[in-house]
Specification:
Chain lengths: ~350, ~250
């Protein structure tokens, strides 16, 4: 309900401003009727009385608007409301005037300026109503915008989470299957793999999507991943990681490398039947961390030199959601190697 | 002797199936293969009674490998695929084992296979069996065909157009054309509708290959391709072209 009270009454400073405005207006009103012929004392009394009632009418309007805010097509009702309140204002003011102001007084003069007073009251109430309604619309809009941005943020977080999780199930189930195979004849190996898998999973669970992680930590996570993949694929998989010392202290989104390497492994392993060497290089220059991941492929038989598997598409999407840029991931080929290049701006 | 073949790209996964199979001495392991090409060769050579087949494998995946075999051998899928993705194959495969699977579950699959082979039902033709599989990975990206003894993987981007040819579909690319035992309706469903348009009952065209559209007789048009070939366009086909090109 609080949101339905016009904002300008919510803050004390604004409330004081309104009081000041009212006093100024009342003084002006008194001065105007004095200059039209009222004796000064009578003009002041009259002005205070008239404008107190006017303030009352405005408050009444405010109360009504709290419970009944007309829609776009119902503005005609507002005009009726304004007219009605003006009439009420007049009757109340007239009665109290008669009750409070002693006779004989120049009532005839009062009667003469009556249409003018009505017009002024109508105008004031109308302006007040207009202001309240506009204020209300503005606030509704702000609430809507906030709600929308909240919803967008929620959706973004959910999407990031989903993108991060999507690649896990296959890897997890295949790893568990490998452990199952090892458990019979090589229980020590099975135990080792369970430990590596646990450490890897712990690493993925701890991460919060929006927090950037140091390169060293990401590379450690990648190491765990690779050690598991090496057990899964046996001697076919070789990994070679080079890091430029200048990259110490650089940050990147968590678990962003794993999909790239996973893609390289799949592409490499699934496309060629011999040994596969995955190469990862991290370089730093111009406030930017650049990581290249490459894998061999057979240009003769590989139909998909774009290599844009699901993994890369999801990394692209994540980078866009985090940095708002679409040019941070590139792919290309060179000497029978497929190369993925990732740029991470450092702030 | 009954023969089995294990096809999986992970050596440990193969060794697990091998280990479980030790309890079934009547089943001889005729071959173990690490990818779909090897698997295809082994199946053609050994004519196994049962195949343990992984889905995600090098070169061509398990589904694509099966597509090239007619009739299909009895298959037990062993995969980390989730149940939902593989459900499309449920009716046709003997069974599917979700990795990691237990010895008991493995036993159940073997029992199921024995039941089936006792019934001596005719093998299900693969072409009809895979037609329903809407979940096969890669099918939006490539088509695998057999040409003599070699296997050809055609990226869909290289397709110029598809032409109906009796029970087959003829796939035309710049390098030549190949036959695939699927229906036009299948390709219409599977291929990206914003790139491939069914312009005629017998033709689906890769729209990026088209250069010009000319009127031809009453109510029909003819589409000129970059390669110079002309494809007839029916009245409905014209409507679909308008829909896609806006």
């Amino acid at each position: 309900m609080a949101s339905r009270i016009p904002g300008f009454l919510r803050q004390a400073s604004r409330f004081q401003g309104i009081i000041a405005l009212w006093i100024g207006w009342t003084a002006l009103y008194a001065w105007a009727s004095h200059s039209l012929g009222f004796p000064i004392r009578l003009a002041i009394t009259d002005s205070i009385l008239a404008n107190l009632h006017l303030a009352g009418a405005c408050l009444l309007m405010l109360t009504i608007l709290r419970y009944y805010m007309p829609g776009r097509s119902q503005y005609i009702n507002l005009l009726a409301l304004v007219s009605g309140l003006t009439l009420i204002w007049y009757v109340a003011f007239r009665l109290s005037w008669l009750a409070l102001v002693p006779h004989p007084e120049p009532v005839t003069f009062w009667e003469e300026i009556f249409p003018l007073r009505m017009a002024i009251a109508l105008l004031v109430i109308f302006c007040f109503t207009l202001y309240s309604v506009l204020n209300h619309i503005q606030e509704e809009k702000e609430i809507q915008v906030k709600r929308k941005s909240d919803a967008e943020k929620l959706a973004r977080d959910a999407e990031l989470y989903r993108l991060q999780q999507q690649l896990q199930p296959h890897f997890l189930f295949n790893s568990l299957n490998s452990i199952s195979a090892l458990a019979g004849r090589q229980p020590e190996q099975a135990r080792l793999m369970i430990q590596q898998l646990s450490e890897f999973l712990r690493g993925t669970l701890r991460r919060k999507e929006e927090e950037m992680v140091p390169l060293a930590e990401e590379l450690h996570q990648l190491d765990l991943y690779l050690s598991i993949e090496k057990i899964r694929f046996g001697h076919r998989l070789l990994a070679d990681i080079h890091t430029d010392p200048a990259c110490a202290g650089t940050l990147l989104p968590p678990l962003i490398l794993q999909p790239l390497v996973e893609n390289a492994i799949k592409f490499g392993l699934y496309d060629t039947t011999g040994e596969v060497s995955i190469r990862l290089e991290a370089r730093c220059a111009d406030n930017q961390l650049t990581i290249t991941v490459s894998n061999p492929f057979d240009p003769e038989t590989s139909p998909n030199t774009r290599g844009a598997g699901f993994g890369l598409a999801s990394v692209q999407r994540r980078l866009f959601l985090i940095f708002g840029r679409n040019d941070l991931l590139e792919t290309g080929t060179q000497n029978s190697r497929f190369i993925t290049t990732l740029h991470i701006p450092q702030s | 002797m009954t023969k089995a073949i294990i096809i999986d790209d992970e050596p440990l996964a193969r060794s697990l199936v091998r280990e479980y199979l030790q309890e079934y001495p009547f089943l001889e392991i005729a071959a173990e293969c690490g990818d779909g090409f090897e698997g295809l060769k082994a199946i053609q050579e050994h004519r196994p009674d049962l195949v343990f087949l992984d889905i995600q494998m090098p070169k061509i995946n398990g589904f694509e490998m099966l597509e090239l075999l007619d009739p299909a051998p009895a298959v037990i899928f062993t995969t980390a695929f989730d149940e939902y993705a593989i459900r499309a194959f449920d009716r046709h495969a003997v069974d599917y084992l979700l990795k990691p699977f237990s010895k008991e579950r493995f036993h159940k699959a073997i029992e199921r296979w024995r039941e089936r082979s006792k019934q001596k039902t005719d093998p299900v033709p693969v072409s009809s069996l895979l037609e329903n599989a809407s979940e096969s990975p890669h099918q939006k990206e490539r088509i695998v065909v057999k040409s003599g003894s070699s296997i050809i993987v055609i990226p869909v981007d290289e397709i110029m157009y598809l032409e109906a040819a009796d029970d087959f579909v003829k796939i035309h690319t710049r390098k030549g054309h190949w036959l695939k035992n699927r229906t036009m309706a299948h390709f219409e469903k599977v291929l990206d509708g914003s790139k491939f348009i069914r312009v005629h009952r017998s033709y689906i065209v890769n729209i990026s290959e088209a250069t010009r559209l000319d009127p031809y007789e009453k109510d029909s048009h003819v589409l000129l391709l970059k390669s110079g070939e002309k494809i007839p366009v029916s009245k409905q086909g014209m409507g679909r072209i308008r829909e896609v090109l806006g």
